[in-house]
Structures are given as structure tokens and as C-alpha cells.
Design brief:
There is one protein chain. This protein has helices at 2-72, 75-85, 89-94. The N and C termini lie far apart (94 Å). The chain has one domain (13-94). The protein is mostly helical and 102 residues long. The longest helix has 71 residues, at 2-72. It contains three helices and no strands.
């Protein structure tokens, strides 16, 4: 019977060491999830910024083309190009283009 009493503290020590490792692993997993979440937020913010910049470029390009097209008297050529390019009724209405037959 003395063997049982001397083995008991070893088993408890092993369990507590493995429990410590499990707790450390759980903490690392939690940190990893937090880091992954921050990475996803940063990536989403970056995509949002890029999308806004692309939209701004398109708006500025369009404004320039309209202004220069009017100055050079080539708006009819631009409008003709848009007539072949635009297919959605709301888009065509913005440029006062006739509706396409269905």
C-alpha cells in the first residue's frame, strides 16, 4: 500500500502540468483568434479604402472627360460610345440616351 500513496502526488503533478499546458494552449488559441480577427478587420478596411479610391478615380476621370469633351466639341462622339456601352435603363437615362428595345 505505500506505493499508492507515493504515486498519488506524481499523478497529480502530471495532471497539473498537463492542465497548465492545456491552459497555455487555450490562451495561445485565443490570442491567435484575436490576431486573425484584427487581420480580417485591417484587410476589410484596406479593401474599402481601395474601393473608395477607385470610385473617386472614376468620378474624376468622368468629370474631366465631360469637361474636355465639351471644350473640344466631341461630346457627340463620347455619347455615341456610351450608347454602345450602356445597357441598363437607369444608366442610359443619366445621359439622356434612348431606351434599348427589350
Amino acid at each position: 500500500m505505500p506505493t499508492q500513496t507515493t504515486d498519488e502526488p506524481l499523478v497529480k503533478a502530471k495532471l497539473s502540468a498537463s492542465e497548465k499546458k492545456a491552459a497555455q494552449l487555450a490562451a495561445l488559441i485565443k490570442q491567435r483568434k484575436q490576431i486573425d480577427a484584427r487581420i480580417q478587420l485591417k484587410a476589410a478596411a484596406q479593401k474599402n479604402t481601395e474601393r473608395k479610391e477607385e470610385t473617386r478615380r472614376k468620378i474624376l476621370l468622368g468629370a474631366c472627360v465631360l469637361e474636355k469633351g465639351e471644350e473640344l466639341g466631341v461630346l457627340d462622339i463620347i455619347k455615341s460610345a456610351l450608347d454602345g456601352y450602356l445597357t441598363r435603363a437607369p444608366d442610359r437615362a443619366l445621359f439622356k440616351l434612348p431606351e434599348l428595345p427589350e
